[in-house]
């Protein structure tokens, strides 16, 4: 069996489109994964199935570059560059328009509460989930301790401080702390970071509310315990030297 190796940078930033969705999703992938593993990740993004999906890669001018469908090959062994579009075609994928035509069963909250055969009735009868007072009390205490830990961890965080982000299952990233505090998009304490690379999800604003200023794709919000403040110099990313 032939061996394939990655000869370019370790990661690739591409846009994902599919026959089952109208929107475009931008994601970063390791080039060292096989096409089978790549398709597995695309299952979560497109709703397709790795065994039936077919991939085509287009450049910014919509020119077909390659069709990476050999499951044993590495993603990085194909001529895919940053900014290209990976289009997923799957004839067995259910389209969004199809879902809109599916009849929906509706029931009022009052009628639902009276039924003895529902998940709600089962949880209440067996004192599970929110119907378990002791469990709910423990969750509240755990939440309070977590909030106290976050406040203690970030008490010396200030806008302009350098930091390193270490989110589980993701590569480490460096950046600058721009915001520390509560947000409208999710409860709890959050740290707004301007990354050194365009690896973020926003420009410092979420759902129309601005928390800090930075270029598009350079901003992100991270839970405090994933942020380490320190003397982390900005790394030199000289893209001209990449092969």
UniProtKB/TrEMBL annotation:
CDD domains, sorted: Ubl_TBCB (cd01789)
Domain CAP-Gly: 181-223
Alphabetical UniProt keywords: Chaperone, Cytoplasm
Keyword Transmembrane helix: no
Pfam family, one: CAP_GLY
Signal peptide positions on this chain: none
Name the UniProt record assigns to this protein: CAP-Gly domain-containing protein
Location in the cell: Cytoplasm
Membrane-spanning intervals of the chain: none
SMART domains referenced in this protein's UniProt entry, alphabetically: CAP_GLY
GO molecular function list: alpha-tubulin binding; microtubule plus-end binding
GO BP: any one term: post-chaperonin tubulin folding pathway
Homology family: Belongs to the TBCB family.
Gene Ontology CC: cell cortex; cytosol; microtubule plus-end; nucleus
Source organism of the structure: Cotesia glomerata (Lepidopteran parasitic wasp)
InterPro entries (alphabetical): CAP-Gly_dom_sf, CAP-Gly_domain, TBCB_Ubl, Ubiquitin-like_dom, Ubiquitin-like_domsf
